[in-house]
Amino acid sequence: MFINSIGCYVPEGRVDNDHFLNVNGLTADWILKRTGISTRSKAAPGESHNSMGLEAIEAAAVKLPYDIKDVDLIVSAAYSVYDSVATLAHEAQKKYDIDGAKAVYASSACSSFVNGLEIIEGYFAMGKADKALLVCSEHNTYYANESDPKCGHLWGDGAVAMFVSKNKIADTDVKIGHIYTCGLGNIGKGPEGVKLRPKEDGITMPDGRDVFIHACKYMIDALEHVTEPDGLSPAQLDYIITHQANKRIVAQVAHQLGLGEDKFLNNIEELGNTGSASAAIVLSQNMNRFKKGEKVGLTVFGGGYSCGAFTVEF
């Protein structure tokens, strides 16, 4: 599998930490020290899960080495959907008139992007597709309750799109290595760890400590699953990108792996937690940084719980 093109969309709006003092009683310094977040991205009025996802597709399509109509599989992967029936995958199919393509939606909380990539891998293996579009858009602020002192200050908005082919098409293609996902609903707080119930109280995180502990453990576990088949360890990767949930989680993962934090690429300080789009957005934002031969590992953890990882080689 190969990445043919990748692009992201991040709204221009930013909400700084000072905003929350009169909303949930948390000071700017308290938020920064415990999360690493200084500002978070926020979609403007009129923007949505769908519109951000379509903007990300536009960004990725600029460098696409084939006609977008050649895509035969569209996967929308996210949890903060605008419409759970007419999904972003179908909206993309309509906008670009991608006739005959399969269009599906997948969700596994903040590991949704990696699960979407694994679904594409499965379609490719079955011979049912050979060019796919994976789009992930999270409109967290649409559902978040800012007055919630446990997690109302965490959320940011953003989207990412990736075109993937079964076989190499252009010299600029980036090879996707191993992909791993795992459901962890039977671990710790499981389904109660992070919840999104729109008609009740939006996005909630009743026990952040339980999320923290398991995120650190299972993001490392997922990385080991995708590096071991190549005879590598996570420490031998050139860069690591984790789900952008909390800067302290990144620091703890680095500590447990015995690595400096300079090996980890992040955007959480500016964008906050952009959900399942977060790690792939970081990848998209840093594409010009990577050199030929370098290996990058992306690893994620989602409420519910779930985890996933994959590697790319430039």
| Average predicted confidence as pLDDT | 97
Rg over alpha carbons: 18 Å
Structural class, by secondary structure, is alpha+beta
The largest sheet has its strands arranged as 5-4-6-7-1-8-13-12-11
How far apart the termini lie comes to: 13 Å
Describe this structure in words.
A hairpin with a 3-residue loop joins strand 12 and strand 13 (306-313). The relative contact order is 0.19. By secondary structure, the protein is of the alpha+beta class. The two termini are 13 Å apart. The strands form 3 sheets. The chain has a 9-stranded mixed sheet with strand order 5-4-6-7-1-8-13-12-11, with helices on both faces. A two-stranded antiparallel ribbon has the order 2-3. Strands 9-10 form a two-stranded antiparallel sheet. The longest helix is centred in the last third of the chain and has 20 residues, at 208-227. It contains 10 helices and 13 strands.
